[in-house]
Amino acid sequence: MIQKKVCMVGAFATGKTSLVSRFIYSIFSEKYYTTVGVKIDKKTLDFQGNNVNLILWDLYGEDEFQKVRMSYLRGSSGYILVVDGTRRNTLDKAFELQTKVEESIGKVPFILVFNKWDMTNEWEIEAHELDVIIQQGWTVINTSAKTGQGVEEVFQTLTNKILNG
Predict the structure, then answer these.
(1) Would you tell me how many other CB atoms lie within 10 Å of the CB of residue 42?
(2) pLDDT tens for each residue of 24-43
(3) Care to name a GO molecular-function term for this sequence (predicted)?
């Protein structure tokens, strides 16, 4: 059995916990719970005929009062950088966190997730901004933890990047 640690990283309230809940338990809750510290979950994927155990570290969101502890990232095979499309500042925070993560653990595979795709009428991020990020070579996936759109794709894509480079 292959085991891989994956961290969920982003500003507070971007939907990191909701994405994990949707992926592991196929559920979504309208209630907002702040993650305190780190919450660890596990899911086994069948990937190209292999069982891959994903150990998901859902890190508390970073804001002006609380910084993500880079020590939580040690041993990560990859990470998911989560942005709330309805809050422009979460994209800026994602860029900042990506730099910090790379300085802390080096270059490991990651996916940039634009969450809350079900609320595009409230988005503060323009389509051309997404295009620029994609042109820089980043893998970008639009998701909705609420509807489930793109969630499975995120974890499958990241697993592929981790195992196949």
Answers:
(1) 10
(2) 988 887 776 667 678 999 99
(3) GTP binding
